[in-house]
Amino acid sequence: MPKVTINGQIYEAEKGRTIIQVADEVGVQIPRYCYHPDIGIDGSCRMCLVEVKGAPKLVPSCATPIADNMEVRTTTERVHQAVRYAMEFLLLHHPIDCPVCDQSGECWLQDYYMAHAGHDSRYPLGQKTRRKKAFDLGPLVKLDQERCILCTRCVRFTRNVTKTNEIQVFSRGHNSEIGVFEDKPLTNPYSGNVVDVCPVGALTSADFRFKVRVWFLKGTPSVCGGCSTGCNLRIDHSARAVGGGIPGYTATDGEIYRTVGRRNVDVNKSWLCDEGRLSFHSLQRWPRLRYAMVAGEQKSAAELIPEIHQRFESIRAQHGDNAVAALGSAENTNEALFLMKKYFKGHVDFRLGKEVELYQQREDELLRRLDKHANTRGALDLGLDRSRLNGFHGARELAERKEIRAMWISFHPQLVGDDSPEIIADLKQLIGSLEFSVLSTTHDFDWARSASILLPMAAWSEEKGTFTNYAGRVQVTNRAVMPPGDAQPLHVYMSELLKLSGIEAASNPSVVFEWISSEVPAYTGMSYDAIGLLGQAAVQTPEEVLR
Amino acid sequence: MTPVKGGYAVDVPVINVSAQARRENATVWSTLRGFAVTLRHLFTSLFKGDTPTIYYPEQTRPYSERFRGTHILTVRNDGSLKCVACYMCATICPAECIYIEAGEHPNPEIEKYPLRFDIDMMRCIYCGFCVDACPEEAIIMSREHHQSVYERNETIYGIEKLMERPGIDAKGPGYRPNRPMAEAKIFNKAEQKECAFPSVLEERHPAVLYESMIRRRQ
Question: Is the confidence metric ipTM above 0.90 for this complex?
Answer without folding.
Answer: no
